Amino acid sequence: MTSFDRAEKFILLNARLLDRRRFEFLFGSGDAQAVVAALEAYRNPDGGYGNALEPDGRGPGSQPVTVLSALNILHEVGAWPDGVADYLESISAPDGGVPFVHPNARDYPRAPWWEVPETYAGSLLPTANLVGALWRAGVEHPWVDRAAEFCWPRIEGLTATHPYEALACVEFLDHAPDRARAEKAAEHIGTMVRDNGLVRLGGTGIVPPGFAEGELHEPHDYASTPDSLAARWFTSAELEVSLDALEMAQHEDGGWRPKWAIWTPVTEFEWAGVLTVNALRTLETYGRSTR
Which superkingdom is the protein from (predicted)? Predict the structure, then answer.
């Protein structure tokens, strides 16, 4: 049985309907509309997405990071993100960004790292991710422009960061219209990532305080496609070793697992379905067929 066959069996046994539909679309004869229909179950009347689409937030209310998950899925199937920017504008902080966790999560179960901030203010994570995703989709909206102005000086002025924030910067810069500015900023972030050991190279790296060992990113995590600006941070050999590690991370049951802590049992397999589809997609994007 090939690694792809084992992954397919894992998806059928364990994944949510949404991720089964994604798998069918990406690797079989599935229909894009079937993915969109499954995603619609997580949408709210305010135009955002909630309802544990992002497994670590169990509440029904729309959340910025949950919207980001939806945008990535819509991009995957070539669907238009209708109304999402209006939702983001409705929850925007005075500084132009959106918080990592919206206060509507306060009364619902959530991962311990989903901390509701005491002050309502924008966060580079996830604002930069969201702007990049909307740029990628070709969305023109006043919120995108204001949020970009929130992100640019914060990205260019970073003197310290962590893997998830650095990845958010990459997503923003990969799709920024000002390519010269983006390339310069990406070089700055890449130097910080390498100099501060925020990537696993040669089997080693520096895990930031408060993060699990598995959350230290690999080169392919930053450069999810070969044409990402982050691909310039690494040699071809380093990327190949990273992809080898991704292949080796497949479990005997065919699935890939979260690198972070499991705080309630259901999230392990909800995340595993997402990550198994994502791993197969990344490997094929880099020309590594698992079939």
Answer: Bacteria
Show the tokens assigned to 146: 């204001």
Give the residue carrying structure tokens 């958010």: 168
Q: Is 164 left (phi over 0), alpha (psi -120 to 50) or beta?
A: alpha
- Residue reference for tokens 């309502």: 120
Q: Residue 170: CB partners within 8 Å, gap ≥ 6? A: 186, 189, 222, 223, 228, 229, 230
The stretch 241-253 carries a mean pLDDT of 96
What residues contact 256, with CB distance under 8 A and at least 6 apart? 249, 250, 272, 275, 276, 278, 279
Looking at residue 204, its pLDDT comes to 77
Q: What residues does 204 pair with on adjacent strands?
A: 201
pLDDT tens-digit readout, 256-277 = 999 999 999 999 999 999 999 9
- The mean per-residue pLDDT over the stretch 15-24 comes to 98
Instruction: Calculate mean pLDDT across residues 213-228.
Output: 93
* Residue for token pair 């000002």: 178
**Per-residue confidence (pLDDT) for residue 105, from 0 to 100:** 98
Cβ atoms of residues 95 and 150 within 8 Å: yes
Within 157-265, residue ranges assigned H as helices are 163-175, 179-195, 219-222, 236-248
Task: Give the helix ranges, DSSP H, for 17-94.
Answer: 17-27, 32-40, 64-77, 84-90
* Among the listed residues 254, 230, 253, the one whose alpha carbon sits nearest the alpha carbon of residue 242: 230
pLDDT at 212 over 90: no
